């Protein structure tokens, strides 16, 4: 982030170039691996994201129980609960952390969408593996497949929000990870920090205003 001139750069790429020419899946790969993927690498990465979207019924039940909670609290609690269903939760190797990170990136939208529908009196929808990451999120949230323009707009929004440097939540997550805690714990730390009104919570305040 170069605030005084209004620039946001991911791994050497200007955010405007990525938002116009890339996809969320491709940009996440860039952030994780330091380079844009070849087509075969992107296909494999996208396949892993699509395969990791489902969450256990026990987590759906938990979301139902705490549905009146703030969405960030529900997300934090559900992400934490997912650790109990991860067979290699304590694998903090580079490869293991990347693998579980991809899965968490796929599962988080499922949690958010399920909570929205449950608290709205509707039944959560299963992920649709035929849709992109952004398109599937909109489908699970709204109950109908989005048109191409809407899905692309959501995709751009996800790209722009993907990384803002070493902000408070990113720093907090790094502290947790530095103790060799599992990635679920690190992500829960980040979400907890993000909720604060002096960080991500500020956007909620703007929305209410």
Q: What structural keywords apply?
A:
209 residues, mainly alpha, 11 helices, 63% helix
Describe the structure in your own words.
With 209 residues, the chain is an all-alpha fold. It contains eleven helices and two strands, in the order E-E-H-H-H-H-H-H-H-H-H-H-H. The chain has helices at 15-21, 24-33, 39-51, 57-65, 71-82, 94-119, 133-142, 148-160, 168-178, 183-194, 201-208; strands at residues 9-10, 13-14. The chain has a two-stranded antiparallel ribbon with strand order 1-2. The longest helix has 26 residues, at 94-119. The model has no long low-confidence stretch (mean pLDDT 95).
Show the helix and strand layout.
Elements (H helix, E strand, L loop, with lengths): L8 E2 L2 E2 H7 L2 H10 L5 H13 L5 H9 L5 H12 L11 H26 L13 H10 L5 H13 L7 H11 L4 H12 L6 H8 L1
Antiparallel strand pairs: 1-2
Helix pairs in contact: 1-8, 3-6, 4-5, 5-6, 5-10, 6-7, 7-8, 9-10
Quick synopsis:
The protein is 63% helix and 2% strand.
Q: How can the largest sheet be summarized? A: 2 strands, antiparallel
* Number of H- or I-type helical stretches: 11
Average of pLDDT? 95
Strand residues, percent: under 5%
Please tally the β strands and state the result. 2
Order of strands, widest sheet: 1-2
User: By helix and strand content, what is the structural category?
Assistant: mainly alpha
Q: Over all CA atoms, what is the radius of gyration?
A: 17 Å
Order of helices and strands: EEHHHHHHHHHHH
Termini, distance in Å?
Answer: 26 Å
Overall 3D shape: globular
- Provide the low-confidence segments as ranges: none
| Fraction of residues in H or I helices | 55-70%
